[in-house]
Amino acid sequence: MKKRGRPTTYFDLVQPRLEEVKDWAGDGLTRPEIAKRLGINRATLHRYMNDHEDLRDAIKSGDGEIVANVEAALAKRALGGDVTAMIFFLKNKAPEKWRDKQERDVNVRNDLDSYLAAVKGKPDGE
Questions:
Q1: Using 50, 70 and 90 to split pLDDT, how confident is the model at 43?
Q2: Cβ atoms within 10 A of the Cβ of 17, count?
């Protein structure tokens, strides 16, 4: 059975420009901006991303490049003494140590037993 509807423009408009797409994503362009440069709408870009691994990989690779560049710039600012950059960097790179909300494992029953034993002058467990 023949597929109905308009033929895809992926192989004509998008696939030949995958290197450009990667560069655009690496420059920080958003998905709608990339779609506009390709001459397609955002929904079409998302459909093509779902259907074509090479496009997904190009955008993911470009996104990875800009993230790495921003991380490097943030690290440079943090090392240069920018306190806000330091805080942001540490909270994201070492969240288990630097997050605002620290997780504590508390066993209230054992703590209460220890306290009551100390108050009564008895060793724990008696």
A1: very high
A2: 17
